[in-house]
Amino acid sequence: MTDPTTAAKPHKTPVRKPPVQVSFEFFPPKTPEMEATLWQAIQKLAPLKPRFVSVTYGADGSTRDRTHRIVSRIAKETGLVSAPHLTCVGSDREEIKAIASSYRDEGIRHIVALRGDAPLGTAHYLPHPGGYAYAVDLVRGLREVANFDISVAAYPEGHPEAPDAAFDLDNLKRKLDAGANRAITQFFFDTENFLRFRDRCVARGITAPIVPGILPIAKFRQMLNFAQRAGASVPPWLHERFEGLDDDPDTQRMLGASVAIEQVATLRRHGISEFHFYTLNRAELTFAICYALGVRPQSVTGPVNGPVNGGGTA
How far is the C-alpha of 114 from the C-alpha of 51, rounded, in Å? Predict the structure, then answer.
C-alpha cells in the first residue's frame, strides 16, 4: 500500500503565455546622415522579426513624400512588413484614396490611420474641405480601397482635445467598429493607468487588441518635450530617477532601458503580449528591451544591407 504522505502529487501543467510580438516606429529622415542612422537601426532591429514597422507622417501632412519613399524602400529591400502612417490633414478624399491605392499596388497592406494635427501656424484642427474629417472616416475610406490591416491610435490618459474620457473611449470604439484591426496607444509611464484603460475598453465592448506604445527614454529632457506636446503625464518618481543627469547621457540611456524593461515586464505579467516601440530611429535601447522580453534575433528573409544613403532625401 502506498503511503499517502509520499505519493507523487499530480503535476500541474503551466499555463503557456502567448509569444511576445513587437512592432517598431520610425520617422522619415531629413538629411543623408539621419538616413544612414535610420538604416543602421533597421538593420539592427530587423532580425527581431517585428510584426510590422511603421513610418510616421508629419502630423500636419508635411512628410508625405518622404514617408512614401521610406515605406517603399523598406518593402522592396527588406523582409519587413512596412506600415505607412496616413492622416486626414492636407488632402481631399480622392487624394488620400490615390495614396492608399498606390500603397496597395506596391503590395503594402498595413496602414496606421490617424486624424493628424492642425497644420503649423493654426491653432485648431479643421477638417480639409472635401477630405476625411476624422480617423473613423479615414478608416472607412481605406476599407473602400483594399482590405488593409489598419491600426489606429488610443490614448490611455485621453486625447488632449477630448472633452472627457468617455467621449474619447467612444471615439476609439467607433474607429474599431469602422474596420480598424487594433489600437496602438500613446506612450505612457504609469502602467496602472494603462491597465485601467484596458479594463475600460473591455467594459465598453472593445475586443480588438490594445497595444501599449513604449517610448524608451534616451534623453530625459527630450522626452519631457514629447510628453508635453502629447498630453502624457510623467510621474514624480521618473523625475527623481533622472535628476542630476542632464550632462550624463550614458547613464540616462542605461536608466531609460531599465525603466522600459520594468514597464514591459509588468505589462507582461498582466497578460500583455504585444508591444509597439517608438524607436526615434535608434536601435540600441529598443533592441535591449526586446532582448529582455525574450525576443531574440532570427535569420532575416530578404536583404537589409542596401546602400544606406540610396535614394537621397525628399
Answer: 20
pLDDT reading at 254 higher than 70: yes
- Residue 16 predicted with pLDDT over 80: no
User: Is there a domain that residue 239 lies in?
Assistant: yes
Average pLDDT for 41-46: 96
Indicate if the pLDDT at residue 252 is higher than 90.
Answer: yes
The total number of structural domains in the chain stands at 1
Question: Which run of H or of E encompasses 268?
Answer: helix 249-269
Residue type, 299: S
Q: Is 25 a catalytic residue?
A: yes
175-221 pLDDT tens trace: 999 999 999 999 999 999 999 999 999 999 999 999 999 999 999 99
Cα(180)–Cα(217) distance, integer angstroms: 29
Buried b or exposed e, range 258-297, using 16+ CB within 10 angstroms: ebbbebbeebeeeebebbbbbbbbbbbbbbbbbeebebee
Q: Which is the catalytic residue, given 25, 35, 157, 274? A: 25
Could you tell me if residue 204 is inside a domain? yes
Give kind and range of the element (H or E) at residue 181. none
Does 257 fall in a domain?
yes
pLDDT at 301: 53
CATH of the domain at 79: 3.20.20.220
Please say whether the beta carbons of 42 and 52 come within 8 A: no
Identify the domain containing residue 185 by its residue range. Answer: 21-293
Backbone angles phi, psi at 215, to 5 degrees: -110, 105
- Summarize the confidence of residues 69-97 as an average pLDDT: 91
Tell me which DSSP letter residue 17 carries: P
CA-wise closest residue to 42 among 309, 218, 283, 253:
283
In a domain, 218, yes or no: yes
pTM: 0.88
